[in-house]
Amino acid sequence: MKTGIGNSRGLPSFRVQRSAIHGTGVFATRRIPKGTRIVEYTGERVSHAEANRRYLNKGVHDNHTFLFTIDSRVTIDAAVGGNDARFINHCCDPNCETVMENRRVYIEAIRDIEPGDELLYDYMIRHEPGDPPDIEEIFACHCGAAACRGTMLLPPDDPGRSRKPPRAVERADSPARARPGRR
Asked: Which CATH number does the domain housing residue 73 bear?
């Protein structure tokens, strides 16, 4: 596995800037080969109860959080101590994916990424009981991909979905209530 934090001269592989997809995005500064581990998604590790408490006062239609579920007990809140990975936007036809290894989350390239390309992964947000009736509008997708689903949500009741949720290494899979990368 190649790491992408910098090249042999220490130059970063990405920069944060304005995105046409949504607010702020992350863009390649050099070619990133398929299979490269680009960055770890970091932030404060909190319980689900604490994550819910922190965002309790947000309006039901405000999907702007930087949460990523690790397991049934832990969520990363990248709004506290997080890094630039929190600005990677959703896309229905992504060039990156999330990988969990030893309860840590990494962003890896799933195809070659050219300089200037925006780094993108599929958030694969799951529907949950108690979601507002207009949840698809709240998490509307504006990625512009030819196969855009129109939402960052996984299709409901689609166990045979061709794309898999974020892959886990060493069985560290995410039950995912958290909505990673929201701005």
From this structure: 2.170.270.10
